[in-house]
Amino acid sequence: MRLSFSGAPEVEAPQAEVWPRITDPHFVARHGPGVESVEVLDESHFKVITGFGVGSIKLRFGIEVELIDVNPPTGLTMKARGRAPGSAVEITAALLLEMIEPARTRLSWKADTDISGTVASVGARLMEGTARKLTEQFWTKFAQSIGAERPQMIEPPVMPAPGPATPPPTPPAEPSDPTPPAA
Predict the structure, then answer these.
(1) φ and ψ of 151, to 5 deg
(2) What is the average per-residue pLDDT within 136-151?
(3) How many other CB atoms sit within 10 Å of the CB of residue 125?
(4) Alpha-carbon gap, residue 178 to 181, rounded angstroms
């Protein structure tokens, strides 16, 4: 069964802050439904364990993820292949970052997924609806999380306006000698 989805949520953060998030496997995994663990093999290869269910069928997939066509800070392609008992999944997702304004970025994504085996046999209508919902929720939550976690801008302290110049303090007078001068 082949499924294709796309979207373009806007992120309340500049592109330079969004790019490190989309390439951080632990940050990305926090938003994936059912993700149990992430193992980083190198900067472009990861292993993910995730649980997925449609209807009464619940499966645990081991997924190998590879980032390809990485073009910082504007986009990348992710390929993922996973297996579960009696089922398999292959995903290709393309991500493109577009600056809308200095502190706002559009995260355009397109995902093509091939699902086979037991989980695909549940029925196209139920599978497509569940997959669409989970995919759209992931990208929306991911985009919101980036904006919510960015450091808040701190206003510089307000310095008082310069007032009239004040003369420097005068040094204290030298103490006088209490003994009378000798005659």
Answers:
(1) -60, 135
(2) 81
(3) 8
(4) 9
